[in-house]
Amino acid sequence: MDGDSLYSIGELARRTGLTVKTVRRYSDHGIVAPVRRTAAGHRRYGPDAVARLALVRTLRELGLGVEAIRGVVHRELALGDLAARHAAALEAQIGVLRLRRALLTAVARRRPTCEEFEEMEHMHRLARLAPAERRRLVDDFLEAVFDGLGDDAGYAAARCSMTPELPDDPTDEQVEAWVELAELSLDPGFRSGLRRGVADHAAVRHAGGTVLPRPDAVAVVRDHATAAVRSGIAPDSPEAGPVVAALTGHCARAFGRPDDAELRRWLVRRLSAAHEPRRDRYFALLALVNGWPTPEPLAPAVEWSVTALRARAGDDSPRRA
Questions:
Q1: Rounded to two decimals, what is the model's pTM?
Q2: DSSP letter (8 states) at residue 65
């Protein structure tokens, strides 16, 4: 090869935009080899070294290590396979970074003090749980709420509807929602509040040793009182009377009870037992994690109905549905 078409390390560095030290290091690793040396021992490289170093520079910018690059340029490793493995590794790193960013965002919103460092550590552990660990946490929560209440399809469906499934590639908002949802489901007070409502409903359905297809009182309230809440009807106003009459008439038929003051007092007791103010927050977070539409909150309808029923608890005048 004509010596005029060969490059010194300095010339090769200028043509590729690399430093002399970097070119020498790649040469020492056998990634780009000199085609000959001068009498003084200086290295000389052929024209193909420019193209090879351009490839090396691109691979380095993509994050590949020197040994992996050497395998590629010597065709010991297939570039496509190596790129696929590297992309998968980067995807895992991106997932970790996304979790960290979401956690830091949540911490920033809470503005914790140094004394609350333990809480931050707890949030970090929840954010980093593996899928199997998340599943165990959720299963433990749902067992605390539903265990021992029967194996009928209704409870199986309820458990399914309360199960969060964080996607493999969650958004920051989904990660934040998961951390808050996990904290909520670990709260003993929240668990016992949901358990009371479910156990109360189970007792009514299994009354007399027979499972009856009776509705949940909260669901009946939702169907009848939500529109009144939206319309701004005061629960103790005359305008609330027809709504309460429709609600108690529905319950009287469904539960086989007279539509009287005792029914209204019974409903107040049931709704009070079933009312867990944080339930709406759980289902809002669940919808965000699972990518579902945000559900209508139940607390306003329950609170409206309890107030309306208490205002009429002593009224034994005939009811009209």
A1: 0.66
A2: -
